Amino acid sequence: MTGLTEQVEMHPQRWGDPAAATDLPDSARGLIELAFGLSETPALDEVAVPPSAIPDELLDPLRGVLGEEHVLLDDGTRRLRTRGKSTPDLLRARAGDLSDAPDAVVRPGSHDDVAAVLAWAVEHHVAVVPFGGGTCVTGGLAARRDGFAGLVSLDLVRMKRLVSVDHESMTAVLEPGLRGPEAEALLAAEGVLLGHYPQSFEFATIGGFAATRSSGQSSAGYGRFDALVVGLRVATPRGEVRLGSAPANAAGPDLRQLFLGSEGAFGVITDVTVRVRPLPDVQAYEGWRWESFAAGADAMRTLAQAGMLPTVLRLSDEAETAINLARPDEIGGASSGGCLMITGYEGTPAAVEAKRAAVTELLTGLGGAPVGEAAGEAWAHGRFHAPYLRDSLLDVGVLVETLETATFWSHREALYTGVKTALEQALGEGTLVLCHISHVYETGCSLYFTVATKGAAEPLPQWLAAKAAANDAIVAAGATITHHHAVGTDHKPWLVHEIGELGASVLRAVKADLDPTGVLNPGVLVP
Amino acid sequence: MTGLTEQVEMHPQRWGDPAAATDLPDSARGLIELAFGLSETPALDEVAVPPSAIPDELLDPLRGVLGEEHVLLDDGTRRLRTRGKSTPDLLRARAGDLSDAPDAVVRPGSHDDVAAVLAWAVEHHVAVVPFGGGTCVTGGLAARRDGFAGLVSLDLVRMKRLVSVDHESMTAVLEPGLRGPEAEALLAAEGVLLGHYPQSFEFATIGGFAATRSSGQSSAGYGRFDALVVGLRVATPRGEVRLGSAPANAAGPDLRQLFLGSEGAFGVITDVTVRVRPLPDVQAYEGWRWESFAAGADAMRTLAQAGMLPTVLRLSDEAETAINLARPDEIGGASSGGCLMITGYEGTPAAVEAKRAAVTELLTGLGGAPVGEAAGEAWAHGRFHAPYLRDSLLDVGVLVETLETATFWSHREALYTGVKTALEQALGEGTLVLCHISHVYETGCSLYFTVATKGAAEPLPQWLAAKAAANDAIVAAGATITHHHAVGTDHKPWLVHEIGELGASVLRAVKADLDPTGVLNPGVLVP
Predict the structure, then answer these.
(1) Which residues on chain A are in Cβ contact (under 8 Å) with B306?
(2) Distance (Å, rounded) from C-alpha B219 to C-alpha B227?
(3) Which are the contacts of B124, defined by CB distance < 8 A and separation ≥ 6?
(4) How large is the ipTM?
(5) What is the mean pLDDT of residues B105-122?
(6) Could you tell me whether strands A229-236 and A192-193 are parallel, antiparallel, or unpaired per DSSP bridges?
(7) Which residues contact A331 (CB under 8 A, 6 or more apart)?
(8) Of A247, A486, A500, which is closest to B444 when you measure between CB atoms?
């Protein structure tokens, strides 16, 4: 593990901070044994990475620019920059396959350093994979390497500055390598908040949020990440792009929205200008119970269309609610049945009080039953923990994965049924499909599915078949292949159904213009 | 005037409905004479358009597809589809120059008709200018014709359907040829509202709103047009693009934002799916007086950053306020001095009451003085009238034009001073430069300037020099060359300063991909 800067690194075969991982509680073990059986999988061996295939002397110019210590070829460093954290990624790593390991890890410290790496990559035809937090769940770090002289991971770990804060405009310029908590800590020292909390918050980075159009658990209140971005700086093989002359403009197409979601295929985002808010004085979360998923969803729609969204708003379907209720320590002992909604409020005491009163009146009128703050606190307490639980379940032979989509309100029920049915049919009897609405808009919402089933002898093809069936169902429903997890390599075959042949052609044209030799994240995003 | 569908057509040399034009009131004449002198210009002659240069038989295939009656070559029809309504456009027309007249006007009735026109245009290398309301003020209808077999105006006047309303998702699908009031009338019959009111509302069209990223007078409450669009259908020379799988997604770059603002250069928008709202029960407008432009702007910023925006919010600077106050019938007899802010509230009685109370408390606390509803009503009454006044002023030899930009709050004052100074210096003593903040965001605002000066013997070069100086000042301030009037041909030389050489390159790449022979609005938008 030579030479990495001081940050907690994730285990190549598991999520998160090794120190934060927990065994399954005994109560859960019993339930899981009942549902899926337990098949203790072998302890994880340290997996060998393939030897670096890049000629060492090819890297000499980069050593000159970045410094010896920022051009790394050792197995430990390369292992930690291999793929992301989808269940397929973990299954491959658990099965001893780290064949996607980069040949080298390079660590630029500035925009100019990134530009130098790209120029070098073009000159020597080396594939470049921008790397932020490594939390990708769509294969966005598994670039194609055939035809290239090698593949390097462009690790943004050194670019962690808060460049500036404009307190009058309430914007801040952040470097891409800042992890969520690091960005918030720097901003908090300035009295402001970004407010972007995806489940990957603790490890994912600002650059990744932008490159993947991330959405967070408080996006009802603070907005999706793409809605928070007012400016970008991007290093491309053909030079620099700087965008963001105003909050909004009519100066042609909004090119910011072309680089947001570009997944490292058009350029490397080297800084991001975001909206910030005052640090909230109050954070309050609570639970509501609804008779049915449909009733809760209708209430969410009513809130959104009335312009009365709280900061956090999510709703579990009956199955997900029941699973949560099976762990009463996490839902505050709420009475069972129905569907659990979490509402959260952040801001000044007066603003929170006013919003909460209005939302409470509306939800009560629509038939919601308040179940108190304990349920909300339990959710807030565990909000980043699910990926650790996935590791524990994989350890005992249970196959677990999530996927998400979004649609307009009038298509919600058909999408829900379509995806759920596809997953149940693909994975067979005894499969558990849970769902929650993770994000709402005036015109629609996202659906976030969690799937658990007894792992087959070969769990990877088992899951890939189920995921393909789910994707087909999503496309059939006219919904989006991904609401907040990006395209990567995993969703690419389905993207063309969403944006059409011409949409795909436009992406190829932009790619060819900015990255004519195709060194940037080859095989990712662009059909 | 053969064969046009039944709608009020604008005079080639003037704005709007000829029946709605009014002479200058005598009180204003006196004031204007004092400020600029009066030099009665000659009565407007009907200007001859150049003969159609397109070989008649070239149009035969289109006659087969669209019908004889929708392929028009007569002078009257061509005259009405010549250029837009900027002051330079009007000055050219008044000077007898309609050299940009299309060779023919073709009127497709459907997406497939549009596709057929584009296929024909590609085959015969004919330039195509999509035409909606003809209200463009940036030269977006003055396409280049050199090297083409001719230039046709693709008039969307027959595509005026409300295709569908989704009352659950609160979206509606509109055809591009619907003028603002036509769209609202069709939606009102369904109990819903679009809420997009640019000054050109009475004549501009849905397709134009989308193609130019329009912003309206109620955008504080309802959102800019690009924020209202959730889906698009576009006909391009290479085929159809359909976008809009969900309110938001992470399926790569948001390609909707590439066609919004594409100004007919990438394709012809053939339908638009927009957010709609319930018809408001209440509409209330009122005025506030502020000690200074800066104090009022700070109050706007506070409202925006507190998430407390009314539906309408605008603020005139001292000079614009004084001019309004010189016409006391239009501002409700408010006491003079300071800066006039208009606030407007639309919605349910309860929502309006709550928002209004909160805004009133905040504005009062910040030092605003309410001046009553009469000032608000006067503004609402005259909200679409300014372009008629421009005609009357041009008639008496006063040069009048508007321009607009936007920036972040911390740059507002520098931008304001920079543009105002540039205009005053370019146009000389006695020039009146008025400004208002027309739109606000959490992070910034737009500045909308109105300029009046004594017209020179050659007012066109006089204005073009002043406009260039203003554009240079905008670029120097790092602001946007246009907040809501698009690029057209007039802003094109400055666009590259805003999006950079690579941004321009991306636009060219997309253009080349979708319109390989370059027949769509040649010379417009793309640097």
Answers:
(1) 351
(2) 9
(3) B58, B149, B150
(4) 0.96
(5) 98
(6) unpaired
(7) A287, A324, A325, A340, A374, A375, A378, A379
(8) A247
